[in-house]
Structure to design on (153 residues):
C-alpha cells in the first residue's frame, strides 16, 4: 500500500511539473553543476548559456548557441520550441530570435564565437544569420577543428 501511495504521489508531482512551464520560459540553471546536452560540458559561463524549451515546458540545456543549433538540426522531430540565450553583459535570459548577435569571439565554450546582446551593439547580425553560419560549417569552431585535424594527418 505504501509503495502504491508513493507511486501515485510521484506521478502527480511529475504531471504538475510537466504542466508548469506551458509558456516555455527559461528555467533556473545550476551554473557549474548542470551539463550541456550535446557537449557534455558543465554550464559554467552565464554569458553563453542556452535553453531550448519544448512545448511541454521541458528544458534542454546547452553551453552555447552553436551546440543548440546543431542539436536542433539533428533532431527535426523537435518542433515549436523557444530558444533562450543569456545576454553576454547582463546574463539575463532573452529569446534568441530577438537578440542582437556578434561573431568572432575567441573565448566561447565550444569555440563557435557568437555572443547575444539585448541592446544592439554597433555591428550585429540576426539569429537567422547565426544559424546559417553554424550549419554551413564555416564558423570559428569548425575552422579550428579542420586545422587541428589537418595537422594530425
Amino acid at each position: 500500500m505504501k509503495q502504491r501511495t508513493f507511486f501515485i504521489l510521484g506521478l502527480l508531482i511529475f504531471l504538475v511539473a510537466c504542466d508548469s512551464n506551458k509558456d516555455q520560459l527559461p528555467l533556473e540553471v545550476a551554473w557549474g553543476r548542470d551539463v550541456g546536452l550535446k557537449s557534455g560540458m558543465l554550464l559554467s559561463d552565464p554569458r553563453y548559456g542556452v535553453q531550448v524549451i519544448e512545448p511541454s515546458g521541458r528544458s534542454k540545456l546547452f553551453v552555447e548557441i552553436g551546440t543548440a543549433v546543431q542539436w536542433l538540426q539533428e533532431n527535426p522531430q523537435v518542433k515549436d520550441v523557444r530558444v533562450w540565450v543569456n545576454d553576454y553583459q547582463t546574463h539575463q535570459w532573452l529569446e534568441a530570435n530577438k537578440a542582437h548577435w556578434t561573431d568572432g569571439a575567441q573565448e566561447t565554450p565550444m569555440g563557435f564565437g557568437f555572443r547575444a546582446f539585448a541592446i544592439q551593439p554597433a555591428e550585429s547580425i540576426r539569429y537567422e544569420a547565426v544559424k546559417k553560419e553554424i550549419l554551413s560549417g564555416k564558423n570559428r569552431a569548425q575552422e579550428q577543428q579542420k586545422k587541428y585535424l589537418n595537422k594530425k594527418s
The beta strands are 50-53, 59-62, 82-86, 93-95, 100-102, 115-117. Residues 2-19 form the longest helix (18 residues). The longest strand covers residues 82-86. Residues 24-152 form one domain.
